[in-house]
Amino acid sequence: MFPKSPVQHRINHICLIGKSxxxxxxxxxxxxxxxxxxxSGFFQGVFSAFNLPRPPWKKQSNFGSxxxxxxxxxxxxxxxxxxxxxxxxxxxxxxxxxDTGSDLTWLQCDAPCxxxxxxxxxxxxxxxxxxxxxxxxxxxxxxxxxxxRHTPDDQCDYEVEYADHCSSLGVLVRDAxxxxxxxxxxxxxxxxxxxxxxxxxxxxxxxxYTDGILGLGNGKSSIVSQLSSLGFIRNVVGHCLSGQGGxxxxxxxxxxxxxxxxxxxxxxxxxxxxxxxxxxDLLFGGQATGIKGLPIILDSGSTFTYFNSDAYKTLLSxxxxxxxxxxxxxxxxxxxxxxxxxxxxxxxxLIDATRYFKPLTLSFTKAKNIQxxxxxxxxxxxxxxxxxxxxxLNGSEVGLGDVNIIGDISMLDKMVIYDNEKQQIGWxxxxxxKLPS
Length: 437
Hints:
Elements: E1 15-17, E2 27-30, H1 37-47, E3 67-74, E4 80-87, E5 92-99, E6 106-108, H2 136-140, E7 157-161, E8 167-176, E9 179-180, E10 186-187, E11 190-200, E12 212-215, H3 223-229, E13 236-241, E14 247-251, E15 262-265, E16 276-284, E17 287-288, E18 294-298, E19 305-307, H4 309-322, E20 329-330, E21 340-342, H5 350-354, E22 360-364, E23 371-374, E24 380-382, E25 388-390, E26 392-394, E27 404-406, E28 414-419, E29 424-429
Parallel strand pairs: 1-2, 5-12, 6-11, 18-27, 19-26
Antiparallel strand pairs: 2-7, 3-4, 3-14, 4-5, 6-12, 7-8, 8-11, 9-10, 13-14, 13-28, 15-29, 16-17, 16-18, 16-22, 20-21, 21-25, 22-23, 24-25, 28-29
Keywords: Aspartyl protease, Hydrolase, Membrane, Protease, Repeat, Signal, Transmembrane, Transmembrane helix
GO molecular function, one term: aspartic-type endopeptidase activity
Pfam families: TAXi_C, TAXi_N
């Protein structure tokens, strides 16, 4: 179902917590009644004696500070951006794939580990710090109706499954997350995350080489929401992904520019918790394509951008009609992505190829005069063969239905801000190679 290519990518992080929609296609978070009698009994025994350690930390009484993390990674060839977080007492470093499309953060966990995938660090070791079922964060992940047999003092199990069919099964734990703020202060608050002792990756997929996922959605289980509820930051998260690789992630609103940002309201549908900008019309080269009302989601957990079948086919047709065939031809032997082109000679950089393509525009229908401009750099991928490929893929072919995702490729060299306080998303061109002071 997925494009089989050397380009590592994910479309794995659209999260609908507590509600199964398109099961196996969407990312869903749900709690199991029983994993199986044997494993349930075994792990219950492992964690039943856990008590919650309270690390020393002091609650700040004022907002106005942020936490800034440098990022490592790129769209091509790595296919993801990762952050290093320290967890535990004493703190140990872990590499996490940043994901605004899901809430729950999880690490591979030696509880012991039933099935762990290759990772840069040894699995996290829990130490009597299991989260009980009565904890509000556990309750936020499910409704009593879909988990009726648990008592308040039972451990809180979780399973998270992503759109690429990767999954993590484990138990919620609470441990110290040491962070340093831009104002110079440091804390190590106890935060809840998943201790994943059973990970699955389909044979056709190449999982990111990380220790887990950093969930940056707006649900109660996200690290951002937890830090906000403890009074340390405002419930704001953002990222700046560099087209040259790297960039930065920030929690809190202290580094958000005071001007120049294009803001659009977050559109919520029923219990959906992902970052949706609502419906948009698609323009190519400033001209209407006839594609209207595309529901748009921003997701840093997706490498590429995905349009539904009709929008994808219309866009591809528009691009091909615009191409000067004397300058570009199909690169049929380049299997990096489904659609690639080559010039009369190999392109030395992406800039050399972008002059043959026109910009795209998403014009949001529920936000007057709000547009997201996608230059050719925001939808083209340079390959090792000196060609360029279309970094917008057919989401209908990978089970996304009518969902349209703006992934990493289309957010490069922009600061993107997810403001859960004011329920709005903003973006502004930025130098993502320089950490904000």
